[in-house]
Design brief:
The chain is built from 34 helices and 17 strands. It is α/β, with parallel strands linked by helices. The strands form four sheets. It has a seven-stranded parallel beta sheet, sandwiched between helices. It is globular, with a radius of gyration of 32 Å. The N and C termini lie far apart (83 Å).
Length: 735
């Protein structure tokens, strides 16, 4: 055994350049090399890969590494080839290879050059591959990302369920299964499905002490993300979004705001994904924006921040994604933007799935909500979820709740009342049912089970106690080990032996009020464009008055109505955003390039002087530039007008009435885009009539259609004609 240890130590230095093993690595490697099945639960950044890479390098034959991620395979194979001179030492076998490449891989294995072969589970199940594996010497099987085998895992892959029978078909060799996230339930599932119930189990602490966890309300999220990323200049980061569309939009918005970012999701071509991954590893870009659903196999040690634009579907997913930060043990900031609206969206996505799957999904989401809304130590909450005890004093201010502690209250009596309620319903109901009983809410469940006849019914409703309040109390009972959830049984609450002791002899139990995230916006599509739509609320009234005076002077000088130059909403936004450069003014709603060039200089000069004299701190030192987000309809209308198509035909092609089409054109013109509808007006109105309308709008202080009809005469003009003339006037003189 001493010889093996010596050679392991030498190999560690020779191949990986390390002087000593980390944590339980040496015991894990020894277990595998003694031919024993080995199960490893180790957090991201703990050095899992080395646990199978090193024994593969020193063992006879080829180790088969089953991995679900093509990107990660490529990443690890590249890294292993760099350790030695022999390129054939590591290969991968998956759907991205051509027939010629597959032949080359198989030849290197047969020639004994290849020590590690990375295989996708789908490739392992192919008949010709099974036949090939039966002909070669296999040292062991390593199943990476083993949580994929469990329906309770965050990334369930049905093909993982077929691994055990296929491995048995190939031959009896040791198996090592590895995962970075496993609740006790998932752990049990993995061992059962892989037939590894008697395997040597190595479970490291899930605590990543260098990671800082923070949850923020989801308001102006795009702007907040840009503001944050700009403070992390030159540092690498990952931003997760729920949808591919949001990934693309956010990556583009970051780029126009001077941040080197690229999108990364399953809908992109494999070559493009590989290129993006390499750009991130080579630090040609700073930020990758990715979908939560798509596992990113990026083994980059110095990711300094991980931002969740949307909350993940499960805490396992959250833990693994945040775990990509600070893998080198240095700084790693994990910022999540949360709104309950996102949870509602995720619940909608589940509809139509099998009932059992929906139940599992809902329970996983409930845990995520609890984590997001809790005001107690986030680290303690996460570790408790993974079955690990943790004293929050060890957090050291490395989560927002410990850094800025919230108000606590004595909850001894209420915790006892909650436990009594669980006991009274014979431990056969979920959290929501218990809260309904405590608050005295009568619903179909309460009626059918006669819960309203229980002594505890309605006892928790005094002093305006709410559902949120009781959620916090029950959560504290969980974290303190007094209550537990029966995950096998749809999350029914059970009282632990500690809970029973607590009822016999209650002791002080401090409870923290939960955060209130109600009213936060779910997804602010317009936030990238600044504060558009805020109205006068939050605007600088003094500056607004100065801008209004300047607008009147400018209009008087140019002999134009003020609204043609800038509308009031644009001035209000200027008084919120304080634009002092031309490219900042362009981003104000209703300004655009043309108006900014034509009228903007005097306005930014005034704002610049005002900002300097009053020492104004500008938001994000100005507005976030938005990407041109014209809907397909608007683009179609502009292109059709450029082609001089009759407006009736344009409306008909899009299933609109002419009135609705005119409304769309008005919106285009108000946002500062110039359109030339003279060709259409010349067909429906004579020159004198058009000229009369232009003169009216030139002299009028108002752009009101009603006032124009009254002045010009409803016998002579239809409402549509006046609206079209106003569009022509605004376009010619304002845009």
């Amino acid at each position: 055994m001493v010889e093996v240890e010596t050679s392991l130590q030498e190999c560690l230095q020779k191949f990986f350049g390390f002087d000593s093993f980390k944590g339980q690595q040496e015991e894990i490697i020894t277990s595998l090399m003694e031919g024993k099945d080995t199960f490893v639960i180790m957090p991201t950044g703990g050095g899992k890969s080395l646990c199978y890479q090193l024994p593969a390098l020193v063992s006879e034959g080829t180790a088969i590494i089953i991995s679900p991620l093509i990107a990660l395979m490529k990443n690890q194979v590249d890294a292993l080839r760099n350790f030695g001179n022999e390129e054939g030492i590591a290969h991968f076998l998956n759907s991205s290879l051509s027939k010629v490449e597959i032949t080359k891989v198989k030849k290197d294995i047969t020639d004994g050059k290849t020590k590690l072969l990375y295989v996708a589970p789908e490739s392992l199940t192919k008949e010709d591959n099974i036949a090939f594996f039966n002909e070669i010497k296999i040292s062991f099987f390593a199943i990476d990302e083993a949580h994929c085998i469990s329906e309770w895992g965050h990334d369930f892959r049905p093909e993982y369920r077929r691994l055990r029978p296929i491995i048995e078909q190939i031959g009896k060799v040791p198996i090592i299964a590895l995962t970075a996230t496993a609740t006790p339930k998932v752990q049990q599932d993995i061992q059962k499905n892989l037939g590894m119930t008697s395997a040597n189990l190595f479970k490291s602490s899930f605590n990543r002490s260098n990671l800082y966890y923070e949850v923020r309300p989801k308001q102006n999220v795009v702007k907040e993300i840009i503001k944050y990323v700009k403070t992390q200049h030159g540092k690498s980061g990952i931003i997760y979004c729920l949808s591919r569309k949001k990934v693309e939009e956010l990556a583009e918005t970051l780029r126009v705001n001077g941040i080197k970012a690229l999108p990364y999701h399953a809908g992109l071509e494999a070559k493009e994904r590989a290129k993006t991954q390499d750009a991130f590893l080579m630090e040609d870009i700073d930020v990758i924006v990715a979908t939560i659903a798509f596992g990113m196999g990026i083994d980059k040690p110095d990711v300094r921040f991980v931002i969740h634009h949307d909350i993940p579907k499960s805490l396992e997913g959250y833990y693994q994604e945040t775990g990509r930060g600070g893998r080198d043990g240095a700084e790693g900031n994990c910022i999540t933007f949360y709104s309950y609206d996102d949870i509602a969206k995720l619940e909608k996505f589940m509809k139509g799935k099998p009932v059992a799957e929906q139940e599992i999904g809902k329970q996983l989401l409930t845990e995520t909500v609890s984590y997001a809304e809790t005001s107690s130590c986030r680290r303690k909450f996460l570790l408790h979820y993974f079955g690990e005890e943790f004293d929050e004093t060890g957090c050291g201010g490395m989560c927002d709740n410990c850094r800025n502690p919230k108000q606590k209250f004595e909850g001894m009596d209420d915790v006892a009342l909650a436990i009594e309620a669980v006991t009274d319903v014979k431990e056969k109901f979920k959290t929501k049912d218990i809260i309904n009983i405590l608050l005295g809410i009568v619903n179909s469940t309460v009626k059918s089970y006669k819960h309203n006849e229980l002594e505890c019914f309605g006892k928790g409703a005094e002093d305006n106690k709410s559902e949120k309040y009781w959620n916090a109390v029950i959560r504290q009972a969980f974290v303190s080990g007094l209550l537990t959830k029966d995950v096998e049984n749809y999350g029914l609450l059970k009282v632990t032996s500690e809970g029973k002791s607590f009822l016999d002899e209650p002791y002080s139990m401090m409870v923290t009020k939960d955060h209130d995230y109600e009213g936060t916006e779910g997804d602010d599509e317009d936030s990238a464009g600044g504060a558009g739509g805020k109205g006068s609320a939050g605007s600088d009234e003094v500056l607004f008055a100065l801008l209004k005076d300047l607008l009147k002077q400018t209009a008087h000088k140019l002999k134009l109505p003020p609204y043609v130059i800038f509308q009031e909403g644009s001035l209000q936004e200027m008084a919120i955003q304080y634009p002092i450069k031309m490219d900042e003014l362009v981003n104000i709603t209703g300004v655009g390039q043309g108006k900014a060039q034509k009228f903007g200089k005097a306005f930014i000069d005034l704002i610049g002087k005002y900002v300097e004299e009053n020492e104004i701190e500008r938001p994000l030192d100005m507005v976030v530039k938005s990407i041109v987000n014209k809907s397909g309809l608007k683009v179609y209308i502009i292109q059709s007008i450029d082609r001089k198509l009759p407006l009736e035909d344009v409306a008909s092609a899009k299933g609109l009435s002419l009135t609705d089409l005119i409304t769309e054109i008005e919106s285009i013109v108000h946002s500062g885009t110039k359109v030339n509808i003279a060709y259409y007006l010349n067909d429906i109105m004579d020159d004198d009539k058009q000229q009369e309308a232009v003169e009216y709008f030139k002299e009028s202080d108002s752009d009101s259609i009603e006032a124009a009809i009254k002045e010009l005469g409803e016998e002579d003009y239809t409402e549509e004609e006046i609206r079209l003339m106003r569009i022509r006037f605004m376009s010619e003189f304002g845009n």
